[in-house]
Amino acid sequence: VQLQASGGGLVQAGGSLRLSCAASGRAFHTYVMGWFRQAPGKEREIVSTISWRGDRTYYANSVKGRFIMSRDNDKNTAYLQMNSLKSEDTAIYFCAAASQGVAPKWEANNYDYWGQGTLVTVSS
């Protein structure tokens, strides 16, 4: 499975961005998907995770109420809609796929496949 993250960029505080994660292969609809981020000098942290059907989503407290994760299994793509962005959201964002188990999956070591990351920079 290959994951391709896109949609990052430079945005002003209070603005919005939508990240996409396109997956190869036929089993996308069976994967729990997650978005993680890593800011400079910090450890990678979970942002959001979604069930394989897309009917259950879970968020880190730091983004709850501002970010929305979704997926389109027909398009083999997961999304992260980021609203009301803050400077502290600046990070490289990674998408990840877990081939076993059910959501939520909070730990990076629960995921089998990773995208290359897309940089989000929020200017204050």
Structure description:
- The protein has no helices and 11 strands.
- The chain has 124 residues and is mostly beta strands.
- Strands 2, 4, 5, 6, 9, 10 and 11 form a 7-stranded mixed sheet that branches. It has a 4-stranded antiparallel sheet with strand order 1-3-8-7, with no helix packed on it.
- The termini are far apart.
Give the gist of this structure:
The chain has 124 residues and is an all-beta fold. The chain contains no helices and eleven strands. Helix content is 0%, strand content 48%.
Structural class: mainly beta
Strand runs, count: 11
Beta strand % = over 45%
Order of helices and strands: EEEEEEEEEEE
Major sheet summary line: 7 strands, mixed
Q: Roughly how much helix do the residues carry, as a percent range?
A: under 10%
The end-to-end distance, rounded to whole angstroms, is: 37 Å
Return residue spans where pLDDT drops below 50 for at least 5 consecutive residues.
none
- Give the count of helical stretches: 0
Radius of gyration from the alpha-carbon trace, in angstroms: 13 Å
Shape, per Cα inertia axes = globular
Q: Could you report the average pLDDT, rounded to the nearest whole number?
A: 97
From the structure above, extract its key features.
4-stranded antiparallel β-sheet; globular
